[in-house]
Amino acid sequence: MGNPHLRTPAMDSLARDGVAFQHAYCCNPVCVPSRVGMFTGHYPHESGIFLNSHHPTRELERMPWLGRVFAGAGYETHYYGKWHLLVAPWQKWIHGFRDLVIPRGRSKDERVAELCGRAFARKHARPFLVVASLVNPHNVCELARKTPLPEADIGPPPPLNSCPPLPANFSVPDDEPSAIREAHRESWKRYPTVGWTEADWRQYLWGYFRLVEHVDGIIGRILDALKASGHAQDTVVVFTSDHGEGMAEHGWNQKQVFYEPVARVPLIISTPDGKNKGKVNDELLVNTGVDMMPTLSELTGVQLPGGAQRFPGRSIAGTLSGTDHAMEGQYVVSESEFGGFVDRNWTHESRAYGRMIRTARFKYVAYSRGRIKESLVDIQSDHGEMVNLAADGRFADELRRHRGILEEWVARTRDDFPALRLLA
After folding, report:
1. What is the 3-state secondary structure (H, E, C) of 57-69?
2. What fold, for 9-179+190-313?
3. Which helix (H) or strand (E) is 406 found in, with range?
4. Which of 364, 363, 359 is nearest to 284 (CA)?
5. Chain-centre distance of CA 137, in angstroms?
6. By C-alpha distance, which of 151, 300, 170, 258 is closest to 212?
């Protein structure tokens, strides 16, 4: 998409063959809650999962898991790679993936490519659903901690003048919601960037791009295996991620916040009919957590239990076939929590719970604690999210409108977000 600091031929080929959605957001910018959302079609507050450290809930057993829905429709169901879905791999009656392999040790992503190739090459009497769950570029976490990478060997960084520059929005915005820097200070093991020099940040960006290129090679192997099997012409391919990476914007690395590089995720969908092939869709707002299952249901004809009306998301399959949807009137919601790993004194009652509302023009964020609890950003004119308009009287009507959207959504989805009474 124009980044001059890396090459991604496999991802580029997916974009040429499919539709790339520019406004796709995860339902929670943390691995486990985001993945649970994608594989159940429900929000984190519905499953009760907000953090990687949360324990399985009874609600997870009752939810309609993607693998189980497709297996019930007669599909072979395969899952290879990183799990992070809280239900145990052996609980196949819950998640529904009959052929499940979670590789151990180094070269896990390479092993996923091998397993996918074998699955594609088999003779299939029934349609198949294959999940290739790749780890990288998640090793950027270890890169930031300056510890050995458990997966890819990218080598030492080059001289500083060969590293990517700092982003234009590297500095922390004025009037940023207070909970963000509170969590940054308290969670120094996960966000070890206090005291980093410009060289540290630029070498970290260089390493992140190398990890992206590494996993692009793995994706290429999977796509080549699909083509070699003869099934590429009748297979829907979806490419996305559970969350993004801070990428030094606002001095942030890793995840959890609602800034664009963290909460906004890649989403490319390629269908066999090739309609809208190569289109970049910047008109539709997508929630990859709750919209994924209704979309796959419509694309395949697999019926969702109770019907699509029982799911909070909606299908975007019409956009793939040529029916565009304007962003006007749409919004997507993401949820987050700065929990006990930040500060053991942050009890359940005092933790920082956050919600994000993204509309056509604005992004509204509210947290349950902190001196500054809200932000309102004109995302169309302020791409770097540097100006908080929440206290600007000229935008008072927009602030009230977005508060109202959040209040309506909380009531409709039975969310117990505790901040609404604090913002009135």
Report:
1. CHHHHHCCCHHHH
2. Alkaline Phosphatase, subunit A (3.40.720)
3. helix 396-413
4. 359
5. 13
6. 151
* Single pTM value for the model: 0.94
Of 258, 245, 256, nearest to 362 by C-alpha is: 258
Distance from chain centroid for Cα 326: 22
**Residues 56, 292, 12: CA angle, nearest 5 degrees:** 120
Tokens (6 digits) for 238? 């979806």
Environment class of 226 (CB within 10 Å of its CB; exposed 0-12, middle 13-18, buried 19+): buried
Q: Give the phi and the psi of residue 298 in degrees, each rounded to 5.
A: -70, -40
C-alpha 50/C-alpha 15 separation (Å) is 31
Q: Is the pLDDT of residue 415 over 60?
A: yes
* C-alpha separations of 163 from 6, 88, 201, 218 in Å: 11, 41, 9, 24
**How many Å apart are CA 87 and CA 52, to the nearest integer?**
12
Q: Which residues pair with 176 in a beta bridge?
A: none
The predicted pLDDT at position 422 comes to: 59
The segment(s) of the chain belonging to CATH 3.40.720.10 are: 9-179+190-313
Answer whether 34's CB lies under 8 Å from 27's CB.
yes
Q: 331-423, what's its fold?
A: Arylsulfatase, C-terminal domain (3.30.1120)
Q: How far apart (Å, rounded) are the C-alpha atoms in residues 249 and 246?
A: 6
> pLDDT tens digit string along 324-335?
566 567 999 999
- Structural tokens at position 128: 């198949």
Neighbour-count burial of 48, counting CB atoms closer than 10 A to its CB (0-12 exposed, 13-18 middle, 19+ buried)? middle
